[in-house]
Description:
Layout: E1 22-23, E2 28-34, H1 38-51, E3 52-53, E4 57-63, H2 70-81, E5 85-90, H3 96-107, E6 112-117, E7 120-121, H4 124-136, E8 140-147, H5 168-182, E9 187-188, E10 196-200, H6 201-207, H7 219-229, E11 233-244, H8 248-251, H9 255-280, H10 296-299, H11 306-309, E12 320-322
Parallel strand pairs: 1-3, 2-4, 2-6, 4-5, 8-11
Antiparallel strand pairs: 5-12, 6-10, 7-11, 8-10, 9-11
Amino acid sequence: MDQSANAPLSAWSDIKDDHQPIRLDESVSIGIAAYGNAEATQRCLEALFKSTEGDFELILINDNSPDEGLTSHTFNWASSIHKNTLIYEVTERNLEYSGSVNLLLSHAKGDKIMFVSNDIFVTPYYFRATLQACAATSNWGIIRGSSNFVDNGLSSHNIQPGNPINSLEDIFTESLNLYSLFADLCAPDPYHTGDAFIVNRELINKIGSFDPLFYGYFADHDYGLRAKIAGMETMLIPGAYAFHQAGSNVSYLSEKDQARKLSLRWARIHENWARFKLKYGICVEVPYTSVNDIAWNELASVSFNQEAHYISPKEYGAFLVKPR
């Protein structure tokens, strides 16, 4: 069975030992946020731990998961494996994707801050390719890799597996093949889509965090646009391949809850498109068709203004539960 859809992947014990993990020190922070779907989150963490070693900072964000403590249990398990782990338990309300990333950008201590969605499975080759690009690009702000599914629909970002994906071992092998094939290839990213990416500390110093004007959608696009306005590069690295278990953050729900979540998703897209138009002076009558139809280069051609383009990081310390 091809796992490019959303059935559970076999466990990390299936990953062969010849995939050597990459050593990351405290200069790297990695954040993973989850709103339920503990099974995918478990696989995400298993892939991370098979891909890395060292004392990097791991920030885990339980975004008010309605799963009777399953995500909390998974995060506690992760902290027992990786000691340099911070766990944030958001209560009362859901921060959504944008708020979870803001928590990471606001509290991470590393010079390189990576966000990984809980349905993204990384590999050692993903890290090698992105970190090599960091070293080779002097003015980088945001770097992201390729995947089997990126919702921008761009062929440059979406690379289909050459073989069926049934296990984490298959993902590691596919990632190695693409790492070898594309070597040091990198390209400008027309706009930022943020399912998995790495941010430069210098960029946070220049433009701060995500804009809370956007709840969920368009926050990542706005961040990439502000990075370009600030004169920093947003880059795509095709050889940095991570597998996206597309649809898994919806498919685990009941049919009723799936319909509700998808309806709410589109409502938020249109709401945030309206906010994006107002922020960047786009005619309010322009309908949303596709993110690929937005004139990104034109929007990025304005002069950088600290007051307009810097968003101060927020304080989320009240949600920190481990260590405390």
